[in-house]
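Subject: for your reference before the review

Hello V.,

The reviewers asked for a structural picture of the protein, and I figured it would be easier to keep everything in one thread rather than splitting it across files. Below is the amino acid sequence we used in the manuscript, unchanged from the supplementary table.
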Amino acid sequence: MKKIEFMDTSFRDGFQSCLGARVKTDDFLPALKAAVEAGTNHFEIGGGARFQSLYFYCQEDAFNMMDRIREAVGPDVNLQTLARGANVVGLVSQSRDIINLHAELFKKHGVTTIRNFDALNDVRNLDYSGNCIHNAGLKHQVAISLMGLPPGLHETYAHSPKFYSDRLRDVLDAGIPYDSVCFKDASGTTTPKNVYETIKAARQLLPKDVKIDFHTHDTAGMGTACNMAAIEAGADIISLSMTPVSGGTCQIDVLTMWHRLKGTDYTLDIDCEKYLEAEAVFEECMSKYFIPPEAREVSPKIIFSPMPGGALTANTQMMRDHNCLHLYPEVIKEMREVVAKGGFGTSVTPVSQFYFQQAFANVTQGKWDKISDGYGKMVLGYFGHTPTEPDPEIVKIASEQLKLEPTREDVHDINDRNPQLGIAPAKKQLEEAGLPVSDESIFITATCGDKGIAFLKGDSPMGIRYKTDEKENAPVASESSKTAGDKQPVPTTEPASYEVTVEGKTFNVHVASGGNVTAAPATDASARAEASSGKTFEVTAPMPGTIVKILVEEGDQVEPGDTILVLEAMKMETEVKTDRAGTVASIPVKASQSVASFETLAVIREG
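And here is what came back from the structure prediction:
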């Protein structure tokens, strides 16, 4: 009987898929220790969204979390993290010096293994990062990213077993050092048949002593079947989780898979009673956290529009916060075309965010009228080669709107030339902020930007969702719910904006989610008169989100394509630009303010 190994993803992917990765270390350490006592010796504990989320929402340091976890589990447990190739643990790709620093720091802070994937399966994005991981003395688990395609598209070469075998051959031909190989399906949409054929072919390509890991989610209800197909094809390791962050958008539960293997030629070889006790501890630890209902659900819609579990709940929570959750079914439906025309990049971070943002723009602003920054750069080649060529018309529109030419250049070379990326500019930013400079603070700044600086200053907000706001418990709207027509404003009750006049002075008052109120002087009377006569125009929010920083002031001259401000939405930072020249007449919003779709961000006087 073959013993199947497993990695417990509860404390990384479980947190990301069910809680937007927003969990305090103190709250889950007892459950982690209980899992070790039950017999688990392999955990996923960081990387992916679980790095930035600690600085953005939890007021915690990810490196401190890694140190505490290593101390809690002892020296022999395999602690694994997730890296996004050239992005490492950020949402934008990095220069080579930061990619190397990532490996060195994660080794320093107790990590054993790094799973390294690229959403586009561009081997160039795995090559340099893989060598850095290996050279730092870590185990490198190189990953091929999987995704199932919806009806009408599933016969294409992209995301077929042959496609995955060819990508594995690319990795082997490139000479990338690796210790194990993972096939990673973030959306849980690959069919059991494709899983079986893919891993069967990989088993023939790889040396017998190389372990194959399979990772999937149960978002589409196929997690157990796909795990079984992988095991029967020769996989040695699978990803599993523990309740309350198992099933649904996350991995299959340890006990569920143990039960499935009974009476077969395979076993997890665990003490089920001990795991029952460990899961009870974990449920108690997480009892105060709000887990959205969609995190526990199996959704057949995901088969048609692959939305990964790790992004699904983050996006629905964002939409719930901004009172546009009724649009979710339409956005998911739109993703089908967005994926196909974008070149079939795997729907996993950051590409899943690109897909969702573009789908949202198509629903609210009209089909392809607005190309989102990330999606546009992806189809133009600025993150690497997509599996197939993107739609030429979409490439043309993206090039015109973003004012960028398509490229085939290695993303590392592009980023190494960027004066805003790398160790030197991060160090300068720290010095200008009067903050201590260390390898850790440099890396935090490089991957987290201004929010990293805010954390280091002690100014980061708390963004954890506890079971205190009952209105958050509304379920996802059905397809029969209200939907938005093209270019129709998203109706909101909260956040909301009002114009209030006090003692002859007019103010724009904004009520954000949670009741926070901000006020700013409204456009003066003459500017409002000009607006009514058509001499000014408004720059509005392309989607709901939170303002990260404002880059212009009243009186500034702007040209078409200039960035007005940066908006955080759907786990991504989006630059909001003006499409016309003029002078900034007013900015009725502030940094850290939540805004709704089509809310005015700036009024600009033409000319």
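For the response letter, the relevant points are probably these. Residues 423-457 form one domain. Confidence is low (pLDDT under 50) at residues 470-497, 510-518, 523-533.

Happy to draft the paragraph if you're swamped.

O.
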